[in-house]
Design a protein that fits this description.
Alpha-Beta Plaits, binds zinc ion, alpha+beta, about 500 residues, BirA Bifunctional Protein, domain 2, 3 domains, six-stranded antiparallel sheet
């Protein structure tokens, strides 16, 4: 691994008379540049290979191997120079930049997918036969201090080391009994015709009327009574408006699918700011969107896409004690959102949907066994609802490097998905996802155990909107034909409001 950096230190005054002094400071700083490199690896530490003074700026060329990377060396030498020159000449360091940075990583062989992935990085990356070269220009002090380069290097290393196992297809490991399906229509069309759902101007959003709501609550209650309660999950209520800094800690969201979220930009709480806007809307009867854009502040939140964000946040940067764990909670307090753009589809892919989200924190053994118990009980609920289902092992998007395995060792399975049959077109619909995150979220939310023992998190999402549509797809719209536990709970269906066209 080789790092070659051209850096620049800007000082508050002229340096030209001080070259002798600078030379001896740089010479004296040699030990500082190899501090921390393992024994025997000192040659892989950093050294200054050239420098020259131009006015009040000092340009430095630094090379290094893997240990004490050139950008860290630049920061170290900047500190030494600032201290020495500050003491003797009362001058200050005004800024650190790097105009040019070349990083060469040796690699064995890059799989085609890795090369494709590296090509997508917003930097100049060249993949050769035995090495990857990253070329960066115009790095600011914030880039250098913010570990941008180290993250980029690990990203490249990760991409080339990833084996094709990670791309493994989801695999069916269990199935429920086959069932006959008398009803073969698309429930979306029927629900609209019967007025159970009504159109709403927002794409991928619907108004769900009385009969739908009753069926929804019946199925929701069954899941809570058959899964959440017996496993001692406590109901909580999580916020659905998530500050960006919380979202940033969720692996795979802002850094993985930022295109899949709704962003919320609050206005200034100032009626004056809206004076023109209000006038225009009154006079033109149109919404002055351009005006609105100018008034709103920067986006500061997303509408919850995952529903479990507040759970990890509630332990963020704190210590827990293994003896007090596991914590098991569930939330069913409202809508969550994903921006699907043009990908919306009837009732099965909507922008706004409901889930029961079960979340837990505990020892690795506890987290795996809680997840597995939730999966077991969930398949029993699908049987109780007389739906045809199958269970799959999958790798969630935030754990692309995760081991899928054959499902025989549950602790190695990151995600189980439950899918149910849609008889009208023979496809399978995912209605639940059951995840073990290992230390992934514990790390990003900085959750610590008092004695340093390992804690894991997990979450299980029951896609309620999908449970309902799948139930209707398999059983139709006549309560008399529904399985008894649902029929009993729903009772008489309420009427829907009549609109004359
Ligand atoms: Zn979750």
């Amino acid at each position: 691994m080789r790092f070659e950096l051209k850096g620049k230190l800007a000082f508050s005054s002229e340096l030209s008379g001080l070259t002798g002094e600078i030379s001896s400071i740089i010479k004296g700083a040699e030990p500082v540049l190899s501090r921390g490199a393992p024994k025997g690896k000192e040659t892989e530490a950093a050294r200054v290979v050239g420098w020259h003074v131009a006015g009040s700026e000092l340009e430095l060329e630094i090379e290094s191997g893997r240990y004490v990377r050139a950008h860290d060396a630049l920061l170290r030498i900047a500190k030494v120079l600032a201290t020495e020159l500050g003491k003797k000449h009362k001058m200050g360091l005004r800024g650190i930049t790097a105009s040019d940075y070349r990083i060469v990583l040796p690699i064995a062989e890059a799989p085609a997918e890795a090369v494709a992935e590296l090509k997508k990085l917003p930097y100049e990356v060249t993949v050769g036969e035995s090495s990857v070269e990253i070329h960066l220009t115009g790095l600011s002090e914030a880039d250098l201090r913010g570990r941008l380069v180290d993250r980029l290097v690990s990203m490249v290393e990760e991409a080339v080391s990833r084996t094709s196992v990670s791309a493994a297809e989801p695999k069916v490991i269990r199935e429920g009994p086959k069932r006959s399906h008398a009803f073969r229509e698309n429930p979306f069309d029927v629900a609209r015709k019967l007025g159970w759902i009504r159109d709403f101007p927002g794409r991928g959003q619907w108004i769900y009327e009385g009969p739908y709501a009753k069926l929804f609550r019946a199925i929701e209650d069954i899941i809570i009574e058959e899964v959440a309660r017996p496993l001692n999950f406590e109901e909580v209520m999580f916020p659905k408006l998530i500050p960006l800094e919380v979202m940033q800690r969720m692996p795979g969201y802002l850094d993985g699918v930022p295109e899949g979220m709704y962003y919320v930009a609050p206005p200034p709480r100032d009626p004056e700011a809206f004076k023109d806007f209000k006038q225009k809307i009154k006079l033109t009867k149109r919404i002055p969107v351009e005006e609105l854009k100018k008034i709103l502040k920067e986006p500061a939140y997303v509408l919850a896409p995952a529903q479990c964000e507040p759970f990890y946040e509630s332990f963020a940067s704190s210590h827990v004690r293994l003896e007090d764990l596991p914590v098991k909670q569930f939330d069913r307090s409202g809508w969550t959102y994903r921006w699907e753009g043009g990908g919306v589809e009837g009732l099965i892919r909507t922008q706004e949907f409901q889930r029961i989200e079960l979340v837990f924190l505990g020892s690795p053994e506890d987290v795996v066994s809680i997840r597995d118990a939730v999966v077991d009980r969930s398949t029993k609920v699908v049987d109780l609802l007389e739906m045809e289902w199958r269970l799959l092992v999958a790798t969630p998007f935030y754990m692309r490097e995760g081991v899928v395995g054959d499902g025989s060792d549950s602790s190695k399975v990151a995600t189980y998905d439950i899918e149910v049959l849609l008889p009208y077109d023979g496809s399978w619909l995912e209605i639940g996802s059951y995840n073990v995150h290992k230390t992934k979220f514990v790390e990003t939310f900085k959750i610590k155990e008092v004695k340093g023992r390992q804690v894991w998190t997990g979450c299980c999402g029951f896609g309620m909107s999908r449970w309902v549509v799948a139930f209707l797809a398999q059983h139709g719209f006549e309560p008399a034909r529904w399985p008894e536990p649902v029929r009993k709970r729903v009772g008489k269906l309420p009427p829907v409001p009549k609109v004359v066209e």
